[in-house]
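Appendix B. Extra example for self-study. Work through it before the problem class; the solution is given directly after the inputs so you can check yourself.
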Amino acid sequence: MASLYFDVPDWQGHLAGQHVDVRLTADDGYQAERSYSIASAPEERRLALTVERLDDGEVSPYLVGELRAGDKLELRGPIGGYFVWRASEQQPLLLIGGGSGVVPLMAMLRHRALAKGSAPARLLYSSRTFADIIYREELEGLSGVGVFHTLTREKPAGWSGYTRRVDAEMLGEVAWPVAEGPVVFICGPTPFVEAAASLLVGMGYPAPSIKTERFGATGG
Amino acid sequence: MIDERKLDGNAIGGLLREVFAMEMTAARGTCAGCGAVNEVGRVHVYVHAPGTVVRCPDCEQVLMRIVRGKGRYWVEMTGIRSLEFVEG
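Solution. Structure tokens for the complete assembly:
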């Protein structure tokens, strides 16, 4: 896992939740392109991407292992107008992330902090192990945000968070009540996103209030 | 059984921008099969076929197929009755 920071000439600005396509071109002209969520808030000067290294990937091993400070990269974006959130929105915000699906949600939380958004916010973040938690210290320091962790593959000594997959009971404890009209963003691997979204719909949350973004099983 | 290869319309925002020359994931498409109206970000997308296959999240009918190669795009969208989006 690595966070990369870019100075982008003529960057038009972005919205929290958007992504960019990163294109690599080999000497022989072969091109590989992957999408990465933007991790930085619109208010930040540099564009941040948080990239998970996938060993069999075509792009992420280069970004995480070989890219050096000062190198140039071809970016296209920002892309996305559906999975986006603006700090001017007032409804309670519920963010549900699985693994690296937390990245666009982090952009929303950073945006909320820097733009002084007043919407109450909660994050439910599922990771395999304690060591897999991205942005752990930064999340601890966010003010006015309820952060709830769950670990699916271990239970460290002294751990006070959840230690199971997201289920209805957990959502019942974490989610804002339906009556408060929350907006929900769910991002993660496809099975994670579909499970969480179906649970919420089953609990009475209106489908249009739940926005989802699926990360594929293959990527890289 | 969930197909882990299934993505959604967010994943083809860049491709759709090449085709339509504007941001399309917030556009609303009407399925020609079941009539469901969904934002493009919500539709189901499969990119492991030759080309990209877009399906209705309500009835799974094919909405759109996009193939890019050899300097050309091939876009088939008989499964979409209409697309509504704000001026860019």
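Self-check: The radius of gyration of chain A is 17 Å. If your reasoning did not lead you there, revisit section 3.
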